[in-house]
Every structure is written in C-alpha cells, then in structure tokens.
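request received
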Amino acid sequence: MYDVVIIGAGVSGSASARELSRYKLNVCVVEKEEDVCCGTSKANSAIVHAGFDAESGSLMAKLNVEGNQMMEELSKELDFHFKKNGSLVVCLHEEEKPNLQELYERGIKNGVKDLRIIDREELVKLEPNISDEAVAALYAPTGGIVCPFGMNIAFAENAAVNGVEFKFDTEVTGLEKKDDTWILKTNQGEIETKYVVNAAGVYADKFHNMVSDKKLHITPRRGDYCLLDRSTEGFVTHTIFQLPSKFGKGVLVTPTVHGNTLVGPTAIDIENKEGINTTQEGIDELINKAGSTVKGLPIRQVITSFAGLRAHEDGHEFYIGELEEAKGFIDCAGIESPGLTSAPAIGKMVANILKELTNAQENPDFVGTRKGILDPKTLNKEEYAALMKENPAYGNIICRCEMITEGEIMDAIHRPLGAKSLDGVKRRTRAGMGRCQAGFCSPRTIEILARERGVDPSEITKAGGESKIIVGINKDRI
Amino acid sequence: METRELICIGCPMGCPLKVEMNDSEVVSVTGNTCKRGDVYARKEVTNPTRIVTSSVIVEGGSLAAVSVKTKEDIPKGKIFDIMKDLKGVKVQAPVHIGDVIVSNVADTGVDIIATKNVL
Amino acid sequence: MLNYDIVIVGGGPAGLAAAVSAKRNGVESILVLERDKELGGILNQCIHNGFGLHTFKEELTGPEYAERFVKQLQEEKIEYKLNTMVMDIADNKVITAMSREEGMFEIQAKAVVLAMGCRERSRGALNIPGYRPAGIYSAGTAQRLVNMEGYMPGREVVILGSGDIGLIMARRMTLEGAKVKVVAELMPYSGGLKRNIVQCLDDYGIPLKLSHTVVDIEGKERVEGITIAEVDENRRPIPGTEEHYTCDTLLLSCGLIPENELSRSLGVEMSPVTSGPLVNECLETNVEGVFACGNVLHVHDLVDFVSEEAAAAGKHAAEYVLNGAKHQETEAKDIPIAAIEGARYTVPKTINPDRMDEKHTVRFRVGDVYKNCYVSVYLNDKRIIHKKRPVVAPGEMEEVVLKKEELTAFPNLSQITVKIEEA
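response:
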C-alpha cells in the first residue's frame, strides 16, 4: 500500500514526485511508457514563459509567474539546462499597438517583472533578423528557455534518489475506491494507495471522469514544430512571439538551450490522444507563419520536424486540487502551456495539498540537489585528461554531430531511472539529436545499450514496446 | 520468333533494346545507339550472369561478419539458390580476402570467397 | 604536441589515396586520422561489386577496393590512428583530436587534407510528415546493419529515393529475405546508375515509381504502413494519387551531404551548391595549405574518381610542404570557372594557367536530364569545347579537360564558362 500514487511521469508528475519526496511518504509514479518524459513533456516549445499571457487571477497566471521565478535556482539545484534569454512579443501592425499595451498591463497585473514595450529601433538592435514589418514589441527579460527533457528527467531522478518508486510500462486501466483505499487496475496488476495524483496529461480527463460526475474534457491540441541545425545558432537570441491578432496567432521562433533554432507550434485540435504525427499542411503552415516575424529564416537547415499534444481543457485553466466528490483523488489536469514553466510551482502545490491531507513529516534524508550527466565539453584540458584516465570511454565519440562520448551514454544508462532505449539515451545525452538524426550513431548506441544492459542487440528498442530496430538476422526467413 | 525487351546498362542513356530471338539464337538487336548495347543484349538474353555478394557471420574475429562474393559470374537464375546455401554459414576468424567460404556453391562450380580480412 | 608535415582527416578512400600520393611525391611525415575502428571508410559496408574498373581494370567489391589502398598505405609505411575523432582544426593547422587510447591530443601540421566524406540526408531534413516510429533508416544505416553486423532491420520495405545506395539496398534486403515493395523517387528521373536500376530492381521485379514521394508514415511504435503519392512539376503531392503500402520499414536514399562542420569552423569557404569547399585546381581551399578531396568536396558516383581526385590533393599538399607557399606565386591570376545553363557547379572553382598541369580535368554535375545536347566550354566569349552528348543526367558526374597551352595562349583570359547547350 502506497501513500501516494502519481499517474504519469511527465513533468507535472515528476515535479510532484520530487516535491513529495521531501516528506516521509511512500510514493510511486506509474507510467504507461517505458521512460519518463514521453508525452506532452517531450514535444513542446521548451519555453519558460514570463507570465503575461494567462488571464489575470487565474491559477495558470499564478503558477506561471511562480514557476518562472523558481526556474533559475532550480536549474542549478537539479543541474538542467536553462537560460534566461528574454522574450519578445512582436507587433506587426501599427493599429495593433493597443493590444500590445493590453498584454503589457496584464503582465504587470500578473506580477511579471521588468516588462516594457520597446520601439522598432530597439527591437532591431536586439534582433537584427526581425521582420521589416515589426513596429514594436513587448520585451520580457524574465522569459527563458529550458531543456524540457533535462528538467523532467532531473525531477524524476531526484525523486527516485529520495525514495520514490517508478513503475514503467504500467498503464492504469481502472480506478476503484474501497473504504479509504484507492485500487488502481493496471496491465501489471492492481496497485493500492491512499491518495492518487492524476498527472496524466492528455489522458487526465479519462481518470478524472472515472471518479467524478463533474466531467473534464481534454482536447489533444496538436502542435507541429521544425527544429533547425545548430549551425543556425544566433539567428535569433530571444524567443520571438507574434502578437495574436485578427491576422492569426502566428508561431514562435526561438533558440534552444543547445543552440538549435525551434519554429512552432501549429494548433490543431484532434481526437486521437496518441496522434503525434506531423502533417504536410502543418509543416507548410509553420514555414509560412515563421516568415512573418523574422526574415531569412534558414529553413533549409531543418534537421527534424515533430508534433506534440497540448492537454487543452475546455476551460483553459489548470485544475489542481483534491476532488470534493472523490476524496483522496487529486487532479493535476489541464496542464498545457505554460505547464512546463509552471511545473516547479505545480509540484509544490500538489505536495502542499498532500502534506495537509496526510500530515506527513519532513523526510530528514531528503537530498535536494542532483548532478546531471557529466558533459566533458564543459571541462578544461586537465580535468578532461583526469576524467579520461579514470574512464577511457570519455575518449570515444559515439554521436559525431553532437560530439557525445561513450562515457556519457554509459552514464545515461546506469544512473537512476537510466535510459533503456535509443530515445532514452537521446533525451538524456543528445546522442542522435543532431543533424544526421542518429543515422551514424544508432548502430553504435544499440551496441552499447545491449552490452551495458546485458541483453541481445535485437532487444533494444527506439522507445520501448514494439519499437524494435533489429527484427532478425540475415537470411533467417529464406 | 520471340522478342525480348531490355534496357541497356552501358551508360545513362539507357537505350530500350529489342532483341529478336529464334529459340536460343539471337536474330537481331535493335534500339541500341552504340556497340555496347549490342554486346550487352546478346549476353543478357542468352546467358545472363551476375556476381552475388553477401556477408556471413564470423566467430572469434574483430568484426561480426565478413563480406563474401561468388568468385566468378554465376547464372542469374541461381541467385536465390546461392543465398539459400549461404544461410547459416559461419566461419572462424581469421579470414583473408580470397579464402574459400563455400566451394561449388549451389552446384554452380563457382566458389564463394571472402572479400575482406577479418582477423 | 605531435608534429607532422601532412595530416589527413579521414581514412576512407579519399584519405588513403591522398596519403599514398603525398608519400610518393616526396613527403615522409604523414598521419592519417580515422574515427572508425578500421581504415576504408564507407567502402567497408559497400560489399557489392562494381568498384575499381577505372583504377584497377577489374571489378572489385568495396572492401576489396579499400584493401588495395590499405596495402599501399602499409607498403609506404604511412602512419595512421584509428578510433580517433578530430574535434577541431585551427587556422594555424593545429589539429585537436581525441581517442580512447590517447585522450585529447594536438598535432601541428604543415598541410591538412580534408577527407571526411559525407553523410546521408535524414528523414527530418526531408520533412516527411507522419509518425516517428522505429523502422525508418537511412539506406546507409541499414547497409551497415545488414552487411557488417548481419542484422535484418526490417521485413517489408519501402524505399524513398533511387540514389545508388537505395538501389543497392533494395537488392541486398531482397537477397537476405526481405520483401522490397516499391522504390519511390521524387524526381522524374533516377539519381542512380542505369546498371543499378536494372540489376538491383528489374532483376527482382521491384517497381520504381518516378515523380513519387512519401506523404505519410503510419505506426506509433514500429512502421506499419507508408503512403506514397505522385508529385506535380513543383514536386508537390497530387491529391487523389495516394497509394498505401503495408510495411515495417522505410529506407531513405535521398542524397548525400558533404560533412564539413570542421571545415566551416576552420573558416573554409563553402559552395552553396555542393556544400563542399571552394577549391582551386590544386584542390586547395581559401585557407592556405588546407586541401580537400573526395565526398567532402563534392559527392561522387564512382570511388575511382575519388581516388584520382584524392591523389591530386595529396600531390599538391606534398608540393606545398616541399616548396612552401611559393607554389602560389605565379604571374597568371586564378581564373574563375562559371557553371551556368544546366551546369550546376565545377570542381575546381578556379584554375591558374601557370600552375596547372598540361591537362586538367574539370568535373561538374548538371541540374536536369538533357538529351542530344552539347557540353561547352568558353574562354571569355570563345567556345573551345563543344562536345556532343546523347544524354547527360544529374546522377552522373560529367567532366571536361582543359589544356594548359590553350589557357596560357589565350589573351586576357578572365573567365572560363562551362554550360550545356541544346543541339
């Protein structure tokens, strides 16, 4: 019997798990995929929003601003990539300047610091590649960018180190309450717990609706993205939004923490909660729209396109709290943008709710810091030499696009909640994330995964389940 | 009289060749724009041959597999018989270029030889 | 810090031929750096035959062709390091490299030959819509798995792109027991050699669909199906022409990109057409003493031409080491070669009549299929070559030979032009 079971190892679930591990509670996270960060958390804009977007007074606005303020320190404690690069909402038409002013005022009301409206001259200084149409912009120096995998994995690893159990490939199929105990029916058997946290992303309505008559309705809102090669680094340095207007919403153009340029997303409401396929129309739309805020976007440098699903609840608000009608069931639902930004604050809020409910004591053994995978590129020559002496695998480059060594891949496999698949390695180390998109390194990474995990190479998958890379040996069917 | 149609592989031109045949005898080749087309067509309709290449597993070597080929051209119709003969073949390292891996493969009178050194 | 006269980055066919040639042209101190665990580069996985007809007058497989050059390298006692990744080349020709055995180390070179080869265009770079499951490989990745590791990457295969690697893999997968259902090619012509279309597809009854592309990939975990459609003249899919194939694998053979990240950070000027360095007739880049050859310079169809080009680069690198920058000092200027009207680029990009050999082969590619045309070369406005060709195609590299006597004799030569002229 667990005290708390969290459904979903995305960024909300993992942040909640990490915050709960501060207390003497028996916590388990169940995840239907083979790894953390496999749903909405892995495919988004990777933006730390300043907080001027959300409606003033909403929980979304509150947690956005709180999350933004927590991010920098947290990124140091948990060792993930974050950069406060500032964001710009670009106004392309003189007559829309009042809308920009409105956005500014909402930001002030929401508690966003250092906001100001800048004229074209200053805008061009900040971003030389800004569109010739741009007339002004809302400048939010507190806006940032983050590695979404890095943050999610950091939360989960830190939670695991502090005693939280993670069960992967575990899909919850039913929920029942007996007396004060929740029974989760899963494909791996039943799990009993006193409290349930519903952090199931696009599936959060499904679990909520199992226990409540006050129905939630979550629409998977697909966003297509194009990622450009690191050779485009510096094309823009701030996150560039287009001021939403009667002309449409536009797409953002932003650097990533690793020096790529990201363009996206579209916003297409779909039915299928697994519908992460890109479409030609979506990609065409992106490329068209990106041209309105910046000029000369080097779109030929695209290295991959992908799509993610935002968990859009009809009310466009975060639903976080214990259900009146289902005691012991805590929703963490409707977490769409700015969900990634808000995750640190969401985790705190969920943990506080459970602390109140359980009267839990603090965990005296809690360790609040975590070291990420060592990146040898950050070392000086002497340090690198010492590292290589200790482990020569750091001298063996496996991913030549991102210059990732065998040592880093081995670290990714052996650390808590280590990588089991090619995508697991990719999200932890960036091996396979570069311009050749794993064409070169995947056979080598398979070899390392198989060796380190002590399994046959044919067992290694791209992302768990049936996603096998090798299906047999030569001539086995002739 | 039978007509066979081929595409010449002599150059990027890819001339569409027509070969008139009387039983196994070539009566005429048309459609070619150079001598090479004629030579190719006559060979291809009377005795089409290919080199077959594959790789087989090596044990105890620095690599998992060694590449192999038929030492000479083999009749085109024998290609899949050769592949069947290669199924399950394993060799022990060291292997040197030219080493016979399977002799008289699929009864063609041609050996399968290694095309790589695996030590 | 290590010191060598010539450091060659890459131990594939280009690097090997460059090293051997440099040695034979009088330079003793040469080092080849190879990132893989053996020399030979991509030839090691090209186990099919058809290599070496020009160089050795016989048909070899890729590994056999590589071995011939490795042998020459060993006979010439040229040093090489395996499992060694070059991290950086500074403009003072200090090369930073790393290996498991030696850690990070630096080498001071007098001349550098870039011979890093190329990589395949990925699915992402092609922007193919659909899901992103397992079962999508570049043809070269599949080639490595099948030929070098003995693993089947799939059972039922659709191939996009009719480049030579795609065609070769259609045959290899078929022979190893897979079913190749179709090869789709975006362009109205194949980028592969005719011989490969006949012997890799026609021999096995594999259909080739020209002017077709992949418009959807299905399957969340592993590929379950591929939809292809015909494209119009702007290469956009035509609605209503979709055809669905059930399969578990998509192979991509959609072009090769010279691997020039090191060259770029070194400050080497690039051609936007080839994505390779701009070089003079010595195959020297704008960075003095830095030469380029093979697929890092421009993508070749035949390894024989890679070897030939690399031997020239090795020779010029040797001359540079032995004679210093003096080899640059000539009375004549570098004459630019313009590629227009059907010709897309030339290698070299400039030629110096004083410095050039008696004859110099200029290689180029055309942008479309032209039938019954002329390959023409102009010195200023005067046409000096007008060679009739029944057909030229983007998939086959073209060449013209320029003569030193003709160039030096030409008064006020300021421009050489290569173009395709209609009959």
